[in-house]
Amino acid sequence: FGLSLPAFAQTATKVNQLSAAIQTSPASITISWTGPASASGFRIYRRPSPSAVPLYTQSSPDTGWTQLGGTLAAGTTSYQDTTVTTGVRYDYRLQNIQRSIYAHIQAGIE
């Protein structure tokens, strides 16, 4: 199977090339990013997507986010989410904690 629901990305200043890699067995989604080198750490949040519409075009309220994995250390460039459910589309939000800048991506496993 692999990636069957498209991953949509919108990047924010200083966080570049946010991507999602899908593994079907065991089910997991790995979120990867680059930069910025000056970031003191990151936080990653997830919520079930309220829509199949790309996250950055939704008018849905900014609610329902759950932080995953605590604060990630400076220099971290990926996070593997092993708590995904097959058939659910998720919104992910990456925060550069130094500047409160966010990047978003949407991914899921069919």
Could you give the distance between the termini? 8 Å
Low-confidence stretches: 1-13
Number of strands: 8
- Mean pLDDT across all amino acids: 79
Number of helices: 0
- Look at the helices and sheets and give the structural class: mainly beta
Percent helix range: under 10%
Radius of gyration: 13 Å
- What is the element string, with H for helices and E for strands? EEEEEEEE
Strand order of the largest sheet: 1-8-7-4-5
Question: What do these coordinates show?
Answer:
The protein has strands at 3-10, 16-24, 27-34, 41-48, 66-73, 78-81, 89-96, 101-109. By secondary structure, the chain is mainly beta. It contains no helices and eight strands. The radius of gyration is 13 Å and the shape is globular. The protein starts with a strand and ends with a strand. Strand 7 (89-96) and strand 8 form a beta hairpin. The strands form two sheets. It has a five-stranded antiparallel sheet, with no helix packed on it. The chain has a three-stranded antiparallel sheet with strand order 2-3-6, with no helix packed on it.
Short description:
With 110 residues, the chain is mainly β. Helix content is 0%, strand content 56%.
List descriptors.
110 residues, 0% helix, globular, mainly beta, three-stranded antiparallel beta sheet, five-stranded antiparallel beta sheet
Outline the secondary-structure elements.
Blueprint lengths: L2 E8 L5 E9 L2 E8 L6 E8 L17 E8 L4 E4 L7 E8 L4 E9 L1
